[in-house]
């Protein structure tokens, strides 16, 4: 009679592999959801679910309720991003948005391409334009000029402006791909410093709802916004996503990333 061999669990290699995998998983959870968030100055421990939502950039509660301890934390934005924001509007809304955009041409250009350090808006995702204008209107993002212009805009005005700029072609820009030389922070980020790769959210390879198209943006504008996030002067990023990323970046890294995306303008002209 054939004698059965020992069970696989009695195999020391399998047993230690399972134990090592479980240990590594526990350590990863502790580092990712406890230790790394705790070193941030604006971190408040609200449980595992709140930490997951914070990392994903979505609300941790719905229906107007707030987690314990969140009452004293300033709200970054009043805007809840929805997929309905990205739907293309009709030609009437685009035409009306073009008329409203005449007030924007001095800074953002006649066709949404800035000749200064203001951001390019041509081809920008509509939900991005909607969110930023709503934030200016509510005072969640600071700018004397933009706050003054946005405060008198209705919801329809904002939607029509977003439709118009989304309708314009992304002139002079080319999407970032892995087929080119990318700075390390753009390509893979810096996981040990809790820095996500830029390419994972800002278009080209992938686009996260609400993350702006930044290909071909003026370098001075990108540097100024990254520095504002790092200093906490700009705080309208949901769940502090950008502040958490930029806090660990050096001046040299901010300059390198900004220069890379600014060069994309000339790449699109070829």
TrEMBL record:
Domain of life from the UniProt record: Bacteria
Residue span(s) of domain Cytochrome c: 90-169, 184-265
Annotated TM spans: 13-36
Keyword DNA-binding (UniProt): no
Protein name (record): C-type cytochrome
GO molecular function terms attached to this record: electron transfer activity; heme binding; metal ion binding
Keyword line: Electron transport, Heme, Iron, Membrane, Metal-binding, Transmembrane, Transmembrane helix, Transport
Organism: Ramlibacter pinisoli
PANTHER family cross-referenced by the UniProt entry: CBB3-TYPE CYTOCHROME C OXIDASE SUBUNIT FIXP (PTHR33751), CYTOCHROME C4 (PTHR33751:SF9)
């Amino acid at each position: 009679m054939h004698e059965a061999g020992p069970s696989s669990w009695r195999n020391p290699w399998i047993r230690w592999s399972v134990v090592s995998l479980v240990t590594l998983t526990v350590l990863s959870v502790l580092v990712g959801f406890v230790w790394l968030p705790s070193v941030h100055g604006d971190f408040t421990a609200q449980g595992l679910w709140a930490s997951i939502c914070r990392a994903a950039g979505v609300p941790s509660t719905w229906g107007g309720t707030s987690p314990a301890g969140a009452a004293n934390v300033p709200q970054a934005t009043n805007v809840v991003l929805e997929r309905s924001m990205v739907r293309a509007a009709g030609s009437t809304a685009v035409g009306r948005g073009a008329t409203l955009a005449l007030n924007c041409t001095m800074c953002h250009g006649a066709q949404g391409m800035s000749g200064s350090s203001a951001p390019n808006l041509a081809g920008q995702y509509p939900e991005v334009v909607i969110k930023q204008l709503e934030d200016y209107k509510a005072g969640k993002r600071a700018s004397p000029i933009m706050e003054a212009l946005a405060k008198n805009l209705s919801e329809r005005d904002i939607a029509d402006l977003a439709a118009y700029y989304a309708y314009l072609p992304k002139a002079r820009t080319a999407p970032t791909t892995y087929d080119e030389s990318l700075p390390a922070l753009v390509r893979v980020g810096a996981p040990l410093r809790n820095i996500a790769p830029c390419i994972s959210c800002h278009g080209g390879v992938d686009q996260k709802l609400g993350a702006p198209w930044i290909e071909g943006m003026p370098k001075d504008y990108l540097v100024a916004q990254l520095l504002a996030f790092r200093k906490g002067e700009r705080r309208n990023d949901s769940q502090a996503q950008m502040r958490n990323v930029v806090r660990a970046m050096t001046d040299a890294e901010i300059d390198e990333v900004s220069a890379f995306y600014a060069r994309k303008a000339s790449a699109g002209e070829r």
